[in-house]
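**User:**
Make up any protein.

**Assistant:**
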Amino acid sequence: MIAELFLRALGDLGLERREAVVKAVELLDGVVSRGEPRQVVLKAPTGYGKSFASVALGYAIYAAYRDGEWERLGGVSKVVHTLPMASIVQDLYKRALATLAGLEPEQARRRPLRELEEEFVEKFGERWVGFQAWSIDADFRDPLFIYSTLVYTTFDSFVLNLYKVTPLTARRAPYEAARAALMRSVAVLDEAHLLAEPGGGERRSAAKELTALRAAVTSLAELGVPVVVMTATIPTSLIKLVAPNARVVAALAEGCRPAEGEEATYDYEPRGVVTARLVGQADYVSIAETHRGGGLKLFVFNTVRRAIGAYLKLKERFGDVVLLHGRLSLGDRSAALERLEELQSRGGVVVATQVVEAGVDLDAELLVTEVAPLPSLIQRIGRAARKEVKRAEVYVVSDGEALEGARRVYGEAEVEATLKLLKEHAGADGTLEVDWRDPCPETRGSYAGMLEKYGEVVYRDAPLDTSLLVELTALNSLVTMHREDAESALERFCGFVRDAAAVPVITSRKCLESGDVKKCLVLLSLDYLLRQRDGESLYAKVLDWEGGRVRVAVRGGAREEVCERVGDDVYICSVELRLDPGSPARSCRQVLRLESKVAATVGGEKERVAVLGLLAREGAYVEGLGFRADYE
C-alpha cells in the first residue's frame, strides 16, 4: 500500500512525520487501491512542511519500482507537483534534490542546480527527478512528465499537458505521452491560493486562473487521477467551488474542533508570536531605523513601481538591501535569492512584491506590508517569526497609494472585504487582535476564522469563465478533439491560465552576446506591454521596436543575409509585430504566432527556428533594478 511505502520513505530520508500529510496519503491510498478517483484538500498553516510530502511520496514510488514492489502502487507511477510560479518551482526543486542527495541545507545553499543534479546522479546512479519551467537553467528538464518519477512543474505547463497542447512545439511533443503520464500520477496542486483569487482590477486573469483550477481538478477526477490540493489559506467556500467532492484534512492545534466534514490532526505547534498593527501610513526608513537588530526586515509591496521606489530610499540609507520582484531578469533574480539567503543569517533589509508569498523561505523579525487580500496577507505574515525568530512585528499599511495599488492589482471586492475585517479586529491604536498562528476557525480572533468570513464574501459569487470551462471540459472528455483543436482554443482564449500571453524579453544585446541567454531573460505579460504611460505604450519604451517591427533573438534556422549573427547559432532578426493597445486579442494572436512569423521572415525552416526573446531597447533595463519604465 502507498501509505506504508510513504512512511518507510520518511524514515529513509530522515524527514519529519507530519500527521496531516500522512492522513492525506492514507485517504488517497484507500481509493487508489480500489481504482476510484479521489481529491484530498490538505489545509496546513504556513511553515508546517506540507510541500515536502511529494519528496517522500516520489521516493516511495521510485523505491517500489526499484525493489520490485510496484504492484503495491495500484498503477501509480509518479508524482507531478504543480506550483503557480516558476520561481517557486526552482526553489522547491533545488531543496528536493538536496534532501534526496543527503545534503545539509548549508551544503546545498550555494551550489548551482547542475552540481546538485550531479550529486543526485552520483547517489542514485540515474535521474528520476525532473522539472518543467521555462526559466530554470538545469539538465533534468522533463516537459512531458515522461522521464521522471517526481516532477516539479508550473500550473501553466501542467494545464497545457492536460489539455493536449504541451509546452513544446508539435514536432517534438506528442500530447498523448504527456496525458498518459498524468493518468498514472498523483497530482499535487500546491499553493493553490495563488490561483484562486476571483479577479478584478488589472488582474482580470484571476477569473481565468480560478476557472482553470476548477477545470483541472474536475478533469483529473474524470481521468481517475488522485489529486491533493495544498494551501494554508483555503476557506470552505473555495473548497466547495474548486473541489466540491474532496475529502478535507486540516492540521490543527490541540483543543480545536474541525469544521463539519473535515478530518483533523493535532500536531501543529505555533513557533513564533506575531504582533500586527493596521496603520494609515508608514515611513519605511524610520521603521527600519527603529529595528536595527540583527534580524531580517521584510518590506512587501503590491506593485513593482512601489517596491522599487521604497528600495531606492532604503538602499540610500542602509546600503545593503535586496530587491526581489517579478520583472527582474533570471540572472538578477538568482543573485537576489542568493543574497537573500545571506541576509537571513546575518540580518538586513529585503524589499519585495508578492513573489515572496510562496516558495521563499524567510524568517523575518519585522514585516511591513501593503494591505492585500486576506489570503495574501496571511502568507506574507507567514514569513515572519517562522523558524528561529521568536517574536516579530508586522505593520499593515493602508494609505491611499497602498489601497489604490491593491485595488488595481487584486480588485475592489477582495481589498474591501479584507479592510473591513481588519478594521473590525483593530484596537484604538491599530493593533490587530488576531492570532496569526491559530488555524482554528471557531476560535475568536484566529486568522482561520477571518479567512472563513472573507471567503463567504469573496467566493460567494466568484465569476468563472463559463466558455473556457466548457472548452477545457470538452478537450479532456472528447477523444475526437486533438492538438489542433487545443491550439485553436488556446489562441481564441489567449491562453488557458493567464489573461494575457507571456512575452520573453532579453534585457540587452550585451547580455545576449555573453552567451548565457537564460540570465538575460524576463517574462513580461502582454497586458503590461500594452499599458499606456505618458501617452505612449510601454512596449515602445521597453522593446527595441520601431514602425511595427521588433528585433528578435533566435537560435537556428536563420540566414545571415537576413539576420545578424551575434553568437554560436544565435541571431538578431527584425520581425513585423503589430501590437495594438486597443485590441488585446489581436495582439495576443500576434505573440502566439511569433515563432511562425519569425520563420517566415528569416527564410529559415520552422522546425529549426527557436525564438529566444524580444530584444529590449538599449538602456531600458537596469541591472539589479528592473525596467526604467517601472520607476522613472
Notes: The chain is about 40% helix and 20% strand. The first helix runs from residue 2 to 13.
